[in-house]
């Protein structure tokens, strides 16, 4: 959505608004400000006189008169004063406040000059970094607001500085996409292995999220929980299948899982009648606890045939 072009901002067509790098009087000056006032005509100055000036980092809006766009947003960039006088933040504020004002006025396409890098002497590479990353952040935070953001840069050097920053953003995006894609493939692969492992397990395995909602039961668990509804339990609370004492235990275990990523498995119960152990195991996405599974494991000796496949 961010585009760069070398040229004169007063000549851009098919854009709702252009931004002016003005001074705090808003009464015109040199550079891009002078060019905009000249091209818009003297009516612009009449309107600007009514605005009562504008503070550094802030923005005000006017009509565009003889310019091809509909509106002009006037913002006042910081004068470069060595870099330790809040210049970076004030420059970022110019972009943020211009975009906010534009969005409030239903402007969907907007063109910026390189604010502060002319008469106000802000170093171009530093200004380009702040400008592009601030606007990119704003667009990501407000994806519905704009259709096009254009920088109209007067000279080749300035355009190259902005291009470097735009390229950086695009590279990071590509990287993020490919990481997400390969991670998803890994997860799908793991999921199908894990599913086959868990489904053949003759121990009952029940997976719950942190609200205790049952999100998976293997075939043994469906059998095991038949008297409580079997498969019907999916989507319901595991706590409904337990008495108050075990409910308290389950809650306690979850609290213990939460206190450390090393806390991952607890032996909770031995059922003498059925000769089985019950465990709770933490489920984590990286380190973040996302749920748990409850496993009932019989102590009975294997009943399968022993190595009878050949
Ligand atoms: N189109 C696009 N960019 C332009 C144009 C144009 N027609 N003309 C100049 N530029 P500057 P500032 C570029 O000095 O540093 C005024 O007097 C220019 O090459 O216009 O924020 C105001 O009244 C540079 O890359 O703005 C303030 O007093 C960029 O626009 C003061 O200058 C900004 O240069 C503001 O200084």
Structural description of this entry:
The mean pLDDT is 89. Strands 1-6-5-2-4-3 form a 6-stranded mixed sheet, sandwiched between helices. The chain has a 5-stranded antiparallel sheet with strand order 8-7-11-10-9. With 310 residues, it is of the alpha/beta class. Helix 3 (87-104) runs parallel beside helix 4 and helix 4 (124-141) packs across helix 5 (156-200). The chain has 7 helices and 11 strands. A hairpin with a 4-residue loop joins strand 9 and strand 10. The chain is 39% helix and 23% strand. It has 2 domains: 2-177, Leucine Aminopeptidase, subunit E, domain 1 (3-Layer(aba) Sandwich), CATH 3.40.220; 198-298, Beta-Lactamase. The chain binds ligand AR6.
How would you concisely characterize the structure shown here?
The protein has 310 residues and is α/β, with parallel strands linked by helices. Helix content is 39%, strand content 23%. The protein is built from seven helices and eleven strands.
Write the layout of secondary structure elements.
Elements: E1 2-6, E2 17-22, H1 31-40, H2 42-49, E3 59-63, E4 71-76, H3 87-104, E5 109-112, H4 124-141, E6 148-153, H5 156-200, E7 204-209, E8 214-217, H6 219-224, H7 244-259, E9 265-271, E10 276-285, E11 288-298
Parallel strand pairs: 1-6, 2-4, 2-5, 5-6
Antiparallel strand pairs: 3-4, 7-8, 7-11, 9-10, 10-11
Helix pairs in contact: 3-4, 4-5
The structure holds ligand AR6.
Residues 8-10, 21-23, 29-33, 35, 77, 113-120, 152, 154-155, 158 line the site of ligand AR6.
